[in-house]
Write a structure and sequence with these properties.
By secondary structure, this protein is an alpha/beta fold. It has a single domain, classed as Rossmann fold (3-Layer(aba) Sandwich). Helices cover 44% and strands 17% of the residues. A seven-stranded parallel sheet has the order 3-2-1-4-5-6-7, with helices on both faces. The structure holds NADP nicotinamide-adenine-dinucleotide phosphate.
């Protein structure tokens, strides 16, 4: 049976690109995203067109049972999940405290933190039985620093960081490698940053900072790091790493 790389939050940016990187190395990639069936199909076909093997599922990570059922189904019918990538974020743009409803705040926590908790509770038992597995968690600047308007996002992402440390404390010695990857800058990601900015502003941003200027982080470059992290020798594991474009200042200088 092929080992599986399960990606939760597989848009056209980091999620699908990481899936493709693992599929190119012999994994079966399982891509899950919330809404865009057509985009999901394109991502799966893109992997298959290059000889990789992949499946795609719509899944809303905040719905109870969604992740749990998908993990059980993949383990039973596709193959052992060797790598899980928890990639969805919880960015809702900048909102003042009084414009952040209780519901929004709680949704951020459900997406960023509780979803990872449920993912870990689903994948850790089979990984522990096999004595190995990797959980790669995409993070952002908000995991490291609160900022104006980021009440929901920063609280949720910082909670996710502490959850990663806690998971590592319990499961590291059992052979499960948990990595918290801080993406500290803008990514060339049409389904998230692109939609948040709108097509015109995103096109302008790509022209001014992206493409050959390398000022937007390229998902394919991020995917190389994810693949490397998942294949580190266990005598020299990374728990936390940060990535940014060469032209950006890190979070502590901004
Ligand atoms: N983009 C950036 O500039 C940037 C910067 C720093 C950090 N990050 C981090 O990078 C990660 C996202 O990567 P990306 O921006 O390249 O995006 P991406 O992989 O292109 O897409 C992420 C996907 O997550 C899916 N998603 C959102 N909510 C979901 C839910 N409740 N259930 C299932 N799937 C859900 C969305 O699917 P649908 O579109 O189908 O709803 C979205 O397409 C996040 O952890 C974020 O914090 C991004």
């Amino acid at each position: 049976m092929q080992p599986v790389c399960l990606v939760i939050g597989a848009g056209a940016g980091i999620g699908s690109t990481v899936a493709k990187r693992f599929a190119g190395e012999g994994y079966h990639a399982v891509l899950c995203r919330r809404t865009d069936e057509e985009g999901l199909r394109r991502s799966v076909e893109n992997i298959e067109s290059e000889g990789g093997s992949a499946s795609g599922f719509l899944l809303n990570a905040v719905v109870a049972g969604s992740i749990e059922e998908r993990v059980a189904d993949v383990e039973a019918n596709i193959g052992p999940i060797e790598v899980v990538v928890y990639n969805l974020g919880a960015q809702i743009g900048d909102r003042a405290l009084m414009d952040t409803s209780y519901k929004m705040f709680e949704r951020g926590w459900r997406m960023a933190t509780f979803g990872l908790f449920r993912t870990a509770a689903s994948v850790c038992p089979p990984m522990e039985r096999r004595g190995k597995g990797t959980i790669l968690v995409t993070a952002s600047t908000a995991a490291m620093r609160g900022n104006a308007g980021q009440h929901s996002h920063a609280a949720a992402m910082a909670g996710r960081r502490m959850l990663c440390q806690t998971l590592n404390a319990e499961y590291g010695a059992k052979g499960i490698h948990v990595v918290h990857i801080i993406v500290d800058g803008m990514v060339d990601a049409p389904d998230t940053l692109g939609k948040m900015l709108g097509p015109e502003a995103f096109r302008k941003l790509r022209e001014e900072r992206g493409l050959e200027r390398d000022g937007l982080i390229l998902p394919s470059a991020i995917a190389d790091t994810y693949y490397h992290l998942a294949h580190q020798h266990r005598s020299a594991w990374t728990h936390e790493v940060d990535l940014r474009a060469f032209s950006d200042l890190p979070w502590w200088n901004r």
